[in-house]
Design goal:
Distance between the termini: 41 Å
Shape: globular
Number of strands: 0
């Protein structure tokens, strides 16, 4: 149970800093509702859990492979962020689109999973945290699995919290304000993408 709690704290802490995924989650919540925002966050939580699994169970072969491919992964993630940013800037927002279709939910989940999984910094963060807390190898397989479950649940809790907070404001935002938010979030995502590609 101790490992589960540690995993919860780690998952929440890894997810909480607001970066491109957080901005995307907030934007989708404002335009399409809380369910869309939360499902978007679950894609990131799944990738966090996968990286937590790799780092927590000491799968060094996989870790070294991912770190070795980080240039390609940065390019894929950067290009995808640029695509999302441009797509958001060009889109016509409307609060009448608040009901998300199941297909859109799957796309939302897959897109944030892809963005998180193509960020090698995530696995390095898990390795640093696990090593710092002496949890990288000093546990049984069952404890490692509890840790990974905790990471997923902790990350999912953050996305649930964020989408609900954003959902409170969604009802008070006019179409004009939503268009401004779309432009701002689109340019921020585009900026993250350009940074990933060239820096």
């Amino acid at each position: 149970m101790d490992m589960l709690i540690k995993g919860l704290i780690i998952g929440f802490s890894i997810a909480a800093p607001v970066g491109p995924i957080g901005i995307l989650c907030i934007r989708r919540t404002l335009e399409h509702g809380k369910r869309m925002g939360f499902v978007s966050g679950l894609g990131a939580a799944t990738a966090d859990a996968l990286y937590g699994f790799i780092a927590g169970l000491g799968l060094t072969i996989v870790t070294n492979f991912l770190i070795g491919q980080q240039d390609w992964l940065h390019w894929i993630g950067g290009l995808f962020l640029c695509y999302l940013g441009i797509n958001i800037i060009a889109s016509k927002s409307s609060q009448t689109a608040a009901k998300a279709k199941d297909g859109n939910l799957l796309t939302a989940y897959a897109s944030t999973f892809l963005l998180t999984i193509t960020n090698p910094v995530t696995i390095l963060a898990f390795l640093a945290i696990f090593s710092g807390l002496g949890m990288a190898t000093n546990h049984t397989t069952s404890q490692g699995l509890l840790l990974v479950i905790g990471v997923f649940v902790g990350s999912a809790l953050w996305w649930l919290l964020l989408s609900n907070i954003a959902g409170i404001f969604a009802k008070r935002i006019s179409d004009g304000s939503l268009r401004v938010i779309n432009y701002i979030s689109g340019f921020i995502l585009l900026g993250f993408g350009v940074y990933a590609l060239f820096f």
